[in-house]
Amino acid sequence: xxxxxxxxxxxxxxxxxxxxxxxxxxxxxxxxxxxxxxxxxxxxxxxxxxxxxxxxxxxxxxxxxxxxxxxxxxxxxxxxxxxxxxxxxxx
Length: 91
Prior knowledge:
Blueprint: E1 9-14, H1 18-29, E2 34-40, H2 43-53, E3 57-61, H3 69-76, E4 83-87
Parallel strand pairs: 1-2, 1-3, 3-4
């Protein structure tokens, strides 16, 4: 994982709702130790982006059309998956 003392934690934002991604982007931007390295609007694209970008942290929507957040973890493999913060609109 990226050392927060010397560099920023690289984060990928994944949510099918553009407004939710925008809000996440604003929250991440307010933290000096975080850097957005990519954004995805669906699980299939997210799985590819995780493999390509190798983020340290993924803000991952649980429920998305097509592949869910859990499907993304299964596609990558729990042992290769970066740290995850699940985000959802559900109560």
